[in-house]
Write a structure and sequence with these properties.
Length: about 400
Amino acid sequence: MWLGVVCSLLFSAVTAIQSDTPNIAGVWVLNPALTVKPDEIGFTPDWARSGAPGGEGGGARSGGGRGRRGGSGSSGSGVSASPAASDSMDDSTRVQQLTMEARTPPEHITIVQKSGTVSIADDQGHSRTFHPNGQLEDLTIGTVALPTVAHWESGGLVVLFDVAKGRQIRYTLTPSQKPARLLVDIRLIQNGREGDEVKLTYETPDEHDREVLSGTPMPPVPPSPPAGERPATPVVPDATLPAAGPRAGVLPPGSELKGLGAIAVEVEDLSGPAAACGLDQAKIKSSVTQILADAGYKAPIGREDAYVLVSIATSKLPDGACVSRYDTSLVSHADATFPYLKGTVAAVEIQLLHDGGMAGGSPSAHAAAVMDALTKSVTHFVAQIRAAGK
């Protein structure tokens, strides 16, 4: 009897722990307006911490390592992304690669979360699978080992990269609701002291699109005059001068989408893992062609003045999950003039519209996820073409 009660309690405890694990899976798009980071990101060189000539002394970098020295550039700030002279080649690779990733974060990331693994891939070609059990595991940067520890903590995934002696980079990924966002905090740690920090905010593609489409820039507000001074008199245009206007012969925005009646479809060759992830070039082309046909755009006969170009790059993660980066463009040809050339260049390829992103998931569901994303892109193109024709 007591054994049954103990087993029941243990099962309940494990279930509670599993239910408390946050869900960070999905496709996420970076919101640059909600990104916070210092102008320079890096570790303090050893000479600056040890009080060598030109340095700051051992205790001057206070306040969690966020102190800055005067001057501009890495030499003036005392913060450098470059490794110390005593670092090994592997240390140098880890420091440079991971500080670069923190300095230039990806615009799109895809996270596949399973019971014992979390796989993260981005549009910069990085893909890593973590086991959030608090145990040390060796990932790799090319052929260089990357000691890593991941665990769940306070509603988020914490990943600690050991990049060199006394230097770590910690990622904390925390989901939030209403609106659905993924908050990513990147912190450089040196000898146990917290240094530079980067705060990123990722949103779902739909939320990001809504914010971009609904956002209207506010007109600039002139600065208030100092106390005691009269405000500047506004400049009145001279009525005798011709009013400034658009250049002669230049059509208004959106005119390039008017008159499109026939649109072809081209799908670039798929990468090696695409077939294993359920993607088929012919089926993708047929599906996109059908979407355009249903909207009234027939495939052209003969010369293709405009076409939809689909490009997909697929990777298969170590845990079997599939991740694809897709780009959809509406392309046309036109004769063009350039300010640095005399004359006209014939048949220049022009990108009229573009959409792209990432999709990820299990091999059985991956093709449907990619096709759903492509359908949204092409449908959005159709809506823009129709709006331009009104």
